[in-house]
Specification:
The chain is an alpha+beta fold. The protein has 5 domains: about 90 residues, no CATH class; about 170 residues, von Willebrand factor, type A domain (Rossmann fold, 3-Layer(aba) Sandwich); about 100 residues, Immunoglobulin-like (Sandwich), CATH 2.60.40.10; about 160 residues, Rossmann fold (3-Layer(aba) Sandwich), CATH 3.40.50; about 70 residues, Immunoglobulin-like (Sandwich). About 20% of the residues lie in helices and about 35% in strands. The strands form 9 sheets. Strands 19-18-20-21-28-27-26-23-24 form a 9-stranded mixed β-sheet, with helices on one face. Strand 8 and strand 9 form a beta hairpin. The longest helix has 23 residues. The chain is elongated, with a radius of gyration of 38 Å.
């Protein structure tokens, strides 16, 4: 039990108790009066004796009842209350989880977990900053919101009102949540909360986490010496079904045909019968019933969701289309029951090949789908790269300047600030490939050799894709706003053209350089990431319409690029622009269902090898002052009854 205003009650008693006692010990001031008889003097003497000043107090039930009533009123002024073990004072950081799983509505009355977390945080503020009638005995509290990044919602303050207003401003997102950035912010602000008034670092601030436990980086976190209290929200038996991902691609032999795939997950131990609906541009085109297997425990004791992959019948969509796959039905987490994907229109990429009548690259590029290839000599770029060219291929052609367009250069000294040329090397084998780069997602060549590759030194901006005994053989980087890929050898003088990875390299390099498909202009991205799109070069700004209807204007960068983020709302985004060639693009932002779909509240969090038990959230301190006032009123009623009986 704690007291919010104990000193106020103390001084109140110091003042009022003596005044009450004085009422009983001070004599009455009587006027002299001449009377004709002394018959009643004996009774008058007794009355005078009772009012003699400063006599010893005798037993008096009325005085006792009045003192008890005064004590009860003073107790009410002191504002006693029962509260949890975590008391007031010092510095406290409230960490609020805003991840997508906090939208699950498994609380009482259909409340979401985020609403329960905010209510529990209000209870913590009520405990830390009770806001007494005659003062506030709380310490300093800070609020940090957790998402893909951490944000300071309210710096350290002792103002209860400011803290409550900061909670009201918080909104849930469609991203995952990470604890590590929040702890880093808490440590920085705890060590120096006010840069203008530096002080010595004291004890670490207490941490209170309000979450459902679905933080994705708990294995990377160390609490060090900071104590943490975990207020868990949600239910331990909550289950969920989700549309984990949707993918769509055009059929290579018929670009007007779109093939659509969906992955459905089930976090319940029992198989789930679900109805799945696929829509294109808002129109339902396919509905079927599926069974999603139940989840199982893997060897390490981690729940592995049951999965069902669905392949839909190809549909004809010649233009850009928005694909939606939805689970028809209700569960506690409707946000992950739907997912989207965008299939771009099959526009051909305009490629200009500059070559001295060499055959290999001409034939290789001519068979790649989706390319509109033009061929010319060095005179074709004497006055600059022609307008409308998406990709410039320089096949053993000398260039004095770095082209202002995406470039695939072959066996030539490209003028770049990131490369230093050093003659030729002896023939060597391709030893190492980097399969993590999108250019080599189709595979890297092995057991191949290249004759007389260029000697080159690269800096940290350039990424080596293929390497041999003497150094890099293929590189990728971005310079002057455009992507570049360079081959340090002539493919025609190597064994690579006879290997299938040569054609996949050209396809993937074309996609990456022109930002088409995977690794380029991503038509789909995860919530929490950044969206980057190419627009016509004469466009200076675009209008972005979010799934919730919020409209904003965003400037473009040099070279016709627009980027914004982090994007915290999932769903289809529309990007529009005006100018010489008005147009639009659709971008699908996915909710990270893989990390957010498991809804069961854990009994404890494992943070840096330490078990943090779950505390029941929503417990507010219980005030006792109303009971004290009620007791005082009851005593006064008894005192009034005794007084009426005496005078009656």
């Amino acid at each position: 039990m704690s007291w919010l205003s104990p000193w106020t009650a103390f001084w109140l008693l110091v003042i009022l108790v003596p005044l009450l006692l004085l009422l009983y010990i001070l004599r009455l001031r009587r006027a002299r009066q001449v009377v004709p008889s002394t018959l009643f003097w004996n009774e008058a003497a007794e009355d005078i004796q009772a009012n003699t000043p400063f006599q010893r107090l005798r037993r008096n039930l009325l005085l006792l009842l009045q003192l008890i009533a005064l004590l009860m009123l003073a107790c009410a002024v002191a504002q006693p209350r029962f509260e949890s073990a975590a008391g007031r004072g010092g510095r406290t950081v409230l960490l609020i989880d805003r991840s997508a799983s906090m939208q699950a509505n498994d609380g009482d009355g259909g409340r979401t977990r985020f609403e329960a977390a905010i209510d529990a945080a209000r209870g913590a503020i009520d405990r830390l900053h009770p806001g007494g009638w005659f003062g506030d005995a709380g310490g300093q509290t800070m609020i940090v919101s957790l998402g893909e990044t951490a944000d300071v919602a309210q710096p350290f303050t002792g103002s209860r009102r400011a803290l409550l207003l900061a909670l009201d401003r918080l909104e849930v997102t469609d991203t995952a949540a990470r604890l590590k950035p929040g702890l880093a912010l808490a440590r920085v602000w705890s060590s120096e909360p006010d840069p203008d008034n530096p002080r010595k670092a004291g004890a670490p601030a207490r941490l209170e986490l309000f979450s459902d436990g679905g933080l994705v980086d708990l294995d990377e976190v160390s609490l060090r010496e900071a104590p943490l209290m975990f207020h868990g929200v949600g239910q331990a038996d909550s289950t969920n079904r989700s549309v984990q991902s949707v993918m769509s691609e055009r059929v290579p032999d018929d670009p007007d045909q779109v093939q659509i795939f969906a992955s459905l997950w089930n976090w319940s131990a029992e198989p789930s019968e679900e109805r799945v609906q696929m829509s294109i541009d808002g129109i339902a085109v396919h509905v079927e019933d599926v069974t999603i297997p139940g989840a199982v425990l893997d060897e390490s004791g981690v729940i592995d969701a049951g999965r069902r992959d669905v392949v839909f019948t190809p549909v004809t969509r010649p233009g850009e289309s928005l694909i939606e796959v939805r689970l028809v039905g209700d569960d506690v987490f409707p946000a992950d029951d739907v997912a989207w994907d965008v299939v771009p229109a099959p526009d051909a990429v305009k490629v200009l090949l500059i070559t001295a009548d060499r055959v290999l690259m001409r034939r290789a590029l001519s068979v790649l789908p989706g390319l509109d290839v033009s061929i010319g000599g060095v005179e074709a770029i004497a006055g600059g790269v022609p307008e409308g060219v998406d990709l410039l291929v320089l096949d053993q052609i000398t260039s004095e300047t770095l082209p202002g367009v995406a470039t695939l250069s072959i066996d030539m000294e490209l003028p770049s600030t990131h490369l230093r040329w050093s003659g030729r090397r002896a023939a060597e084998s391709i030893l190492v490939g980097d399969p993590r780069h999108p250019v080599l997602r189709g595979g890297s060549p092995r057991d191949l050799w290249a004759q007389s590759p260029q000697g080159v030194q690269i800096d940290s901006v350039v990424r080596a894709l293929l390497s041999g005994e003497g150094g890099p053989l293929a590189m990728a980087w971005e310079e002057s706003g455009h992507r570049r890929v360079h081959l340090c050898f002539d493919p025609a003088s190597s064994t690579w053209p006879w290997d299938p990875t040569f054609m996949t390299f050209l396809m993937d390099a074309t996609d990456w350089l022109t930002r088409r498909g995977l690794g380029g202009d991503a038509a789909s991205t995860d919530a929490g990431g950044t969206v980057s799109l190419s627009v016509p070069r004469d466009v200076s700004e675009v209008t972005i319409l979010s799934p919730s209807g919020e409209r904003r204007t965003w400037p473009t960068r040099v070279g016709g690029r627009v980027s914004w983020g982090p994007v915290i709302e999932s769903g289809p985004w529309l990007v529009q622009w005006q100018g010489g060639t008005p147009g639009h693009r659709l971008v699908s932002v996915r909710l990270p269902a893989e990390t957010e779909g498991h809804l069961a509240l854990p009994e404890a969090l494992t943070i840096g090898g330490e078990q943090i038990q779950t505390n029941a959230s929503g417990t507010r301190p219980m005030p006792l002052w109303p009971w004290a006032i009620a007791a005082a009123l009851l005593v006064l009623l008894v005192e009034w009854a005794v007084y009426c009986r005496r005078i009656g």
